[in-house]
Amino acid sequence: MYRFLLTRQWVFVTLLALVLIPVMIELGFWQLHRHQARVAQNALIAKSLDAKPVPVEELTSPDETLPRADYWRRVTATGRFDTGHEVVVRRRTNSDDRIGFHVLTPFVLQDGKVVLVNRGWVPTASDQKAFPKVPPPPSGELTVTGRLMASQTTDASGIKDLKGLPDRQVMLISSEQQAQLLNKEVLGGYIELTHPATDSPEQLPEPDHDSIGNHFAYAIQWWLFTAAVPVGWVFLVRREVRERRERSAAASEERTEAVPA
Length: 261
Prior knowledge:
Family: Belongs to the SURF1 family.
Strand content: 15-25%
Organism: Streptomyces mesophilus
Distance between the termini: 31 Å
Shape: elongated
Strand order of the largest sheet: 2-4-5-8-6
Low-confidence stretches: none
Mean pLDDT: 92
InterPro entries: Surf1/Shy1 (IPR002994), Surf1/Surf4 (IPR045214)
Radius of gyration: 31 Å
Keywords: Cell membrane, Membrane, Transmembrane, Transmembrane helix
Protein name: SURF1-like protein
Largest sheet: 5 strands, mixed, barrel
Helix content: 25-40%
């Protein structure tokens, strides 16, 4: 009765089921790992934001890649803004999803080193090739506070580092690129400014560290799909067996009726 499982159709169905099961199990674990990574990141952000601010040079130095454990750490820096070498970062959105620029201003420390400061968001000018209107930062020596961030790369951000941009416009916030342009020692990473607070440029909000997304639910969903595959295969086999038995019984009955009395 089960020899039909050796037919081409049923061999294909069985092989498909055998392939789907490990694939969907792996997809479930992939979503679980994404959930765990998001939870770990939220914990890191919360810990960093709650930590007491420290001088930026305690956590980073020129030509150094910022360790992930120090992402979003609150830091202070004392020096002055160098608006003469200020640039804007293209295609950045604010809290209302309006497209504009981030304002990136070098901040010269007391020892002559430079740390990049993202002062916040400004809207684009009517001509996107033109440098936007950017309110100046406070002049003279001051102490700024902000969140320490790693330099941006295409691999990490997905943003292409386009060439041939208008003067003083960049695609990525990169301490290495700015060190070459400034010909100075630039600390690795950059600071997202939180103090002194300004309305313009519009300061960047704290990173989201409350939501965890739907990755865990998606993992459960994939595993439920995995369990459904063998259940569905058994259901189809039993239905096929039942239908074959019914057809066999009907054919036997027809032969019996056809025999002369």
